[in-house]
Amino acid sequence: MRSNFKKALSKAASITIVVIIIIAIAAGAGWWWATTQQEAIPTTTSFSSTTTAATKPKISVIKIGLIEPLTGAHAVFGIEAKEAAELAINVINNELGGIKSLGGAKLQLVVQDAGSTPDNARLAAEKLITQSHPNIVIGAYISRLTAAVAEVTNRSHTILFMDGLVDDLTQHGWKYVFRVAPKASAHGKSAVDFILDMAKKKGLKVKTAVVLNEDSVFGTYTGNGAVLELIKNGVKVLDHITYPYDITDVSSIIARIKADNPDVIISVPYFHDAILIAKAIKSEGLHPMFIAAAGGCGYTDPDSIKAAGDAVLYYTQTYSFNPYRHTEWAKKLVGMFKQKYGKIPTEAGGIILYTMFTIYEGLEKAGQMYPSDPLNPDNLRKVFLSLDLTDSNSIAAQLYPTGHIKFLPNGDNEYAGTAILQVQKINGTLTPVLVWPEPQPGIQPIFPRPDWKPSSSS
Amino acid sequence: MDPILVTNNLIDGVLMGMLYSLVALGLALIFGVMDIINFPHGDYVMIAAYISWLIAMAFWVDPSVTALLTVPLFFLFGVAIYKSVIHPILGAEPLIQIAVTVGLGYVLENIALAIWHAEPKSFPAPWFNFGLNFGGLSISVAKLIAATVSVISLYLTHWLLTKTKFGLAMRATSANRLIAPLMGIDVEKVYSVTFGLGIALTALGASLYMMWAQTNPYLGSSFSLLAWVIVAMGGLGGVVGVIYSGLIVGVLEALGNTFISPSARLAVIYLAFFLVLWFRPRGLFAKR
User: What's the total number of domains in chain A?
Assistant: First the structure.
């Protein structure tokens, strides 16, 4: 009896194992089939004829996917990014005649909403890849959304140009990602470099600093970039304060900074907290040598100036885009943007402008380097890694703050850098003006703050 | 530990605590009298702050002055919300009440997002955004005004509840909503006025807050959380309970920001809340 039971049990177990193995094999085969199909699609669908190594393909349209947060809390960035992308593509197709090395192929923009969560962004990327088969994708400004998009694009071997700035986006080992814009920590570093450069020019010594940043990943990377640069330059960091950007009151934080009495304050805010901080600093009567911000958000943008008024006077902010660069194409595209949308492009739009023209210049080169298979993602990757764009040979470089774009193997720009704007009173109006690395004509950086009250240690 | 920094924080915490109490009082009234879980309480603060900002910008006056318009406007808004959204779910299953009130919060948040987008709004030329300095101590005049107005409003509400016939009707309805009508109390009127009053108090809090701060579509959730903690910690002990727990929250927030970390602000407040509930499960000032 016992033996029969054992036999029955072992028979049932064997059948179960066999069924599991069959299911596993079937699932594996299904997965392999699905992924090979998916990977095969992007390189062929945008060709109007079959690609072979021997014949040059006739390409009429190259699809550029754009995944940005068009709804939700970050829509303000995504909408401007979309506006900039539409403008750039219009110029490339109509004014520059498309991609000449590919027979005048036109760029076609395909837009998806990344929403406000990584899940939404991932779904948007999957939809874009499977339905539209873009050759290159751009996205998604907010770093956590960008990471979600990158997982999908990298898996399907689609080139992704990231406009999210968090440092580690290029440290995941993703092969098909590039980023023209300066990473978050570079913003923190630039804010410090600006202060030290100004202090040196004015014969002042910066001995102490306080860094405060909102505690998102972006804020943390940017704040850490500032702290490291301060320490590297022998400035004592008295306090490094982090806070949630949705904080309702910052008075106690400002009281803490007042007690620290630093020479300079480096702030990495979002929009809401920037207004609270600027107003609280004014109300509490803090008078440091300088207050510099990093991260491209808050204080110097038109909306923050409108909301905070005089409280943001003399604040500086680092930007990934310099709307006042004196190059032919920067003047032209900023002018066109202003004419079309009634405002100058800020961080989100500016990044897209130079990213789109980097793609344009890469595609031109791809037509020359790989005429038989220019849109193959591995070929495209090699093309982008070979680019060395400067003001003299490139539209993209003319739009970029440092005027130089050259990619490192991880996809970051070796010559990444920021521009610094300062709020000054021009003809009685609070106006953001370019002060660093090269001030715009007729403008000088105001440093130190005119209301600075030097402490005994300064 | 710098004694001046501690004192500055205590002052700031007390001033903010009074404002938090004012906002939470509206929630306590609605919950106490109507037994309805008004989840989007902070979203009324957010919408009222936008209206305050609009009026301030239109007439170029300090946001505190806008309370003269926003308070009566939001009383009427509260009555309208009661009649259209709250009345049908009175006595319904808690799950339905939660779904409706939480949904209302999302509606308010998305309306703000659609109209004003995500950019924060603030009055750029406030009249009272400066400090009084006494040998290292600094007191924000705007917050001092906000706290003073809050204390006066809290006292007036206490007076309404304890010294007037209508207050008696509110308390009677709160004690037993089935027997109250038998005593000649118009429960429907009590409910609509209570809800209107609760929302009017959020408008007053919003106008005062906008003297130095900003509003954005997501401001509501911060105020909702704080209001709920204050009400639960106070234990529905009337105005006094709300004041004391508001002060505790305000002071803990200020000290936590300075001596622990602003990122741990909510953790500090909630730990204190759990501690209170551990020793007094019905709240600090529960009547029984």
Answer: 2
Are residues A197 and A172 part of one domain?
A: no
pLDDT in tens, A155-209: 999 999 999 999 999 999 999 999 999 999 999 999 999 999 999 999 999 999 9
Q: Are A192 and A266 in the same domain?
A: yes
> Could you tell me the domains of chain B?
3-279 (1.10.3470)
Of A378, A372, A382, nearest to A58 by C-alpha is A372
Q: How far is B30 from B221, CA to CA, in rounded Å?
A: 18
Helices (H), chain B: 3-34, 41-59, 67-81, 94-116, 141-163, 165-175, 187-209, 219-234, 238-259, 265-279
C-alpha A28 chain-centroid distance: 37
pTM of the model: 0.80
* Residues in chain A closer than 8 A to B219 (CB atoms): 246, 248, 272
Q: What residue in A sits closest to B221 (Cα-Cα)?
A: A246
Q: Which residue in A has a C-alpha nearest to residue B140's C-alpha?
A: A283
Out of A258, A271, A284, the one facing B119 most closely (by C-beta) is A271
Residue A5 has pLDDT above 70, yes or no: no
- Residues of B with CB below 8 A from A315's CB? none
Taking an 8 Å cut-off on Cβ atoms, the answer to whether B265 and A73 are in contact is: no
ipTM of predicted complex: 0.83
Comparing CA positions, the residue from B50, B116, B110 lying closest to residue B77 is: B50
CB contact under 8 A, B265 and A243: yes
Inter-chain contacts counted by CB atoms under 8 A, chains A and B? 135
Cα B4 from Cα B9, distance rounded (Å): 8
What percent of chain B stands above pLDDT 90? 66
Window 207-226 of B: residues touching A by CB (8 A cutoff) are 212-214, 216-219, 221-223, 226
